[in-house]
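Input record (one chain):
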Amino acid sequence: MKKILISFVAVLCASVANAQGTTLEQDADTIINVVAYFCKNDTMTFKNHEVKQKITGNDTTLTYDFAQEFMLVVTDSTSKGYRIEMTPISYEMNVESDTLFNGMAEEMWKMTKDVPCIFTTDELGQVQHIENWREIRDVMKKAIPLAIDRFYKNKPGLDSILSRRQYENMMLMMFSTENKIREAYDELDLLFGVHGKSFDIGQKEFDDVENGYPQHIIAKIGYTEQEEDSDIEGDYAVMTKSVVNMPVEDAMDLGINTSSLLLKENVADSLNKMKSELVDSMKTVLKNKDVSVTQNEYYGFFYNGWPKLCYMEKIVDVGLVKNLELNLIEWTSRHWNIYEATKEEDSQEL
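The corresponding structure, as predicted from the sequence alone:
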């Protein structure tokens, strides 16, 4: 779950439902419970769109633009929870984005498109385990070296700056354990990260501290309007916006230290020697203001707890340059025991 949401839950949550037997708040006029009311054989398809952009003045550079469609099927439903299979359907990479990452994504898709992610949740919808994490790990052990080969092949001489071995080892570590694989499947966090929680309906604005840095948070929770034929009475959403300010020196330290994990030693040393100059330049650009990080999150659900529209947008403002990352997941079709529709179809009576 995203850190901003954790902070927001601490202030707005009426109660947090943990494992088996926890009782959620029941007042529907003031409380929204995010609970999964799924049935065996429920099926939904989603489109996941990830975009990264660099904005310099009036110029926008698209560095990453990837979309994939996947299906979720409830293969088992008991009083203790659900067993769900997530299967890739298709993927599309924008040819106008960075060709280096295009090649990597293509190789990864070839190797992983036939491997589902089978996970379990508790009765509220909180993800508990990935059953076939070892299978996923073993496939990634083969896929990652091939993807890295494609990455470095498209950019001769890159290894003299960016260590191929360190880059490959870092990616392999991302799929080395069940917990790390859960983190790598960020779709699970977007879709099921707030299940099992109860929220006060309404809007709240407050200040908090995130990792020692001040942040301002706006949170809004409520039932959504029925604007489309596919909307159902009782659909609801959880929204947050946070702004975190960080001193330039700290932001530069974080950036250089992170980069140094992958850079060749001589390149990392040169970067560290330039740090003071880089900090002074950034302070001039920002006019001695802090670096700001704005994060917008939206978690929309159907009345029965199935995700409807979820996204996370992050904007890092360093003066002349803004880096934007967007991860959006939207439903495209649904098949429930009492309802079947695609997003384009007219609504049917229950």
